[in-house]
Structure formats: structure tokens, C-alpha cells
Amino acid sequence: MNFILRMLVSAAVIFGVAYLSGGWLLQVESPVAAVWAAVVLAVVNAFVRPVVKILSLPITILTLGLFALVVNALMIYLVAWIVPGVDTTGFLPTMIAAVIISAVTSLFTAAIDRD
After folding, report:
1. Is the pTM of this model over 0.85?
2. How many angstroms separate the Cα of 21 from the Cα of each of 5, 78, 105?
3. Across-strand partners of 27?
């Protein structure tokens, strides 16, 4: 049940970022596409992201952790490539969307786990 609630929160945040930015940060065609994007993002964060983080560890250390923002943006790019109905609009807007999605989803899941 907790996993489903997290996916719904993540989908709402993804759809909210796309809707509130007017498609400037991220373009999501429908709430169904946002749900699929949330599920794919969870899978990507579980399997692909750890490998990318290990491979990019030297450059992350050199940039004092700022390269982690690039890794977040790359994960959003991967989700947009996999899920039909989700599109990115450029690297900088995707990076901003990734930061917003990460921050808001973390806040909501922390509130859910606290209960």
C-alpha cells in the first residue's frame, strides 16, 4: 500500500510540474502518462541510477556533488525516452524539473513515512 501511495505522489508531482510550468520544464500529455512515468522512474532509480552513480563517482567528487544534478536530469531523459506521452524540452529545463521532482517527492514521502 505504501508503494502505491508513493507512486501516486510521484505521478502527481510529475504531472504538477508539467502542468504548472505550462510545458516549459516537462511535457506530459495525460495523468495516465504521469503514472507510467512515475513507475518507470521508480524502476530506473532502482536499477539504472546506482550504476550511473558509481560510474560517475570521480566526476561527482571533482564537481563537489553537482554532477548528481546531471544524473537526475539523465534519469528524467531516460524516462521521457521510454514512456510515450512524456517529453523533455531541453537540458536545463529537464535539470530544473528533476530537482523539483526530487525535492517535492522526497518531502511528501518523508511525510508519508512519518505516519
Report:
1. yes
2. 24, 20, 17
3. 87
